[in-house]
Amino acid sequence: MKNQFNITRRVALGLAAGGLVLGMAGQAAAEVDFSGKTIEWIIPFSAGGGSDTWARFNALLLAKYLPGQPTVIVVNEPGGGSTKGTNLFAARAEPDGLMILGTSGSTQFPYLLGDPRVRYEYKDWKIAMAGPTGGVVYTTPSLGLKGPEDIAALKDKELVYASQGATSLDLVPLLGFRLMGFNVQHVFGFKGRGDGRLAFERGEVNIDYQTSSAYIKSVQPLVEAGEAVPLFSWGVLNEAGEVVRDPTFPDLPTFVEAYQTLTGSAPSGPEYEAYFAFFTAGFPAQKMMFLPKDTPDEIVATYQKAFEDMKADPDYQASAESVLGTYEQVTGPLAQALFEKGTTIAPELRTQVAQMLASEYGVKLGED
Fold it and tell me: What is the value of pTM for the model shown?
């Protein structure tokens, strides 16, 4: 795990313009005290998905290390491809540290694409913690596949995918499946990836993906029971910015490897550039925790210190990899570097994807 954490640090630091020096969270002001308080952690997704799993894992230990040991409760506010709950946070959160927000790529993508449902501005928030994650695409054995090596069998299949929306993090599988030439019907409107997994378990869809935490918790048992077949992971970026195998799933090929198995060549061209841009925005900085912009610096520092102290807790160290995978949650300058990477995209790629969604899927921003 340690080696992967070090790689993550170096990669993220390279994303910041001019480089940043990694530092621990500053000393929290002594007067910050949450004794007797309840902190609401808004998660703009339904229960059971990757963001929900991530937040609930962190919440108990975060409460332990915040001064005064407040109660930290996870509040699920799904809807609108995660824009509903995020808009709620933007409108209601006070700068007192008692309401925090956890976002995902599904929250970042509508923002990046200029979705009119977005009434939040990332630049107005202060980041307390960020962490990368991965994800695994899987299918049903009823389609005749036994493992990743059989992926070509999907080329002539009619596939159905439960999507939170074309501007959510599900844009990554939409672009990826399209690049692979799969015939996929994307059923929009699901409120979270957990709902998509349940649809898969009910047999309503036959291809799905889950972020690492949800895959480990809820899909791996299906694989072990012979009820799901993993196909590939999205992969992670190495120090050179190249896609390599996810160390959480070292036996699974990456998207790039799966594409090569299907076509005999590496992916390239404008469609791959669009896929890669949103993959990069969505996964290296996929999970982030924010406070309102007017939150005093001492409260932000208190949260950052609590996260760093939490990571040194034996209970965290014993469980983090089995729940979250081999990805490190970070604070300070490194979190800021990931934040900037996850909320920035080239205008021409934004335009390319928006036009494709409108022309090929009939999706107008704000209406998926």
Answer: 0.78
